[in-house]
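Progress note, sequence design subtask.
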C-alpha cells in the first residue's frame, strides 16, 4: 500500500489507540509486556494488520496471539470509540519478528573475533588510534 500522509496518520493513531487499550482496558495476563510495533490499515478501512512483539521466548508468542484473538472483539469495539473512522477495521494480529532478528544480529556482532574487526578499532592494532599518543614525533 502506498503511504500517504493520511494513511500514515491513520496507522499511527490506530497503533497508539490499540496500545492504550491493551494497557488500560484489557486485563488478560497473557498480554503483559506486549508492545504494538506497527499497524497497517487497508485503504478501504476494512482490515488492519497489527504487529506486536512480547518479552520472552518463541513459545510466548503463541500465548500472546491467543490472548489477542480472545480480546479482538473488545479491542475493535474500543478502537471504534476512540478513533473516528467511517468503518472500524477488522483486526488481524501478527508477531513482528524484526525486533528478535535485530537482537540476534546484535548478539552475533558482539562475538566478532578481533581479526575480523575493522583496522583501527582494536587496542594494540597498528592502525589503532589508541597507540598514537605513544609515538614520539620529535625524533
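Output:
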Amino acid at each position: 500500500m502506498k503511504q500517504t500522509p493520511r494513511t500514515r496518520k491513520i496507522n499511527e493513531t490506530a497503533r497508539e489507540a490499540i496500545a492504550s487499550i491493551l494497557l488500560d482496558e484489557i486485563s488478560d495476563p497473557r498480554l503483559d509486556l506486549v508492545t504494538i510495533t506497527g499497524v497497517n490499515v487497508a485503504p478501504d478501512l476494512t482490515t488492519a494488520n497489527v504487529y506486536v512483539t512480547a518479552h520472552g521466548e518463541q513459545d510466548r508468542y503463541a500465548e500472546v496471539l491467543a490472548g489477542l484473538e480472545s480480546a479482538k472483539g473488545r479491542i475493535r469495539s474500543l478502537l471504534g470509540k476512540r478513533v473516528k473512522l467511517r468503518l472500524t477495521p477488522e483486526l488481524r494480529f501478527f508477531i513482528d519478528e524484526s525486533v528478535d532478528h535485530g537482537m540476534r544480529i546484535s548478539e552475533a556482532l558482539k562475538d566478532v573475533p578481533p581479526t575480523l574487526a575493522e583496522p583501527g578499532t582494536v587496542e594494540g592494532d597498528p592502525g589503532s588510534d589508541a597507540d598514537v599518543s605513544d609515538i614520539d614525533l620529535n625524533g
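The chain has a mean pLDDT of 82. Work on this subtask will continue into the next period as scheduled.
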